[in-house]
Description:
Blueprint: H1 3-27, H2 29-35, H3 41-63, H4 69-85
Helix pairs in contact: 1-3
Amino acid sequence: LPRDRWAYFIFMCLGIGSLLPWNAFVTAVDYYQHFYPQYHPDRVIPVLYMTLNVIVTGLLVKFGSSIELNTRILFGFTGYTVSMLG
Length: 86
């Protein structure tokens, strides 16, 4: 693929990676509404997810090249593991 086609492919993967969890939250609204009736999961969860997504993406754009790749991968997997256990 030409170089500009790779850019389109990479942005497509970034979009899919951002929207797939978003769709999982939107689809599971009825589940969360059943178990947490005092909250409004259709308003709370997407706001929290998108806020954290924008902050982390901004930090990676700003400081990503100064952090070693192994450290970024380890931090990502650790954060994922902690969030799944919590």
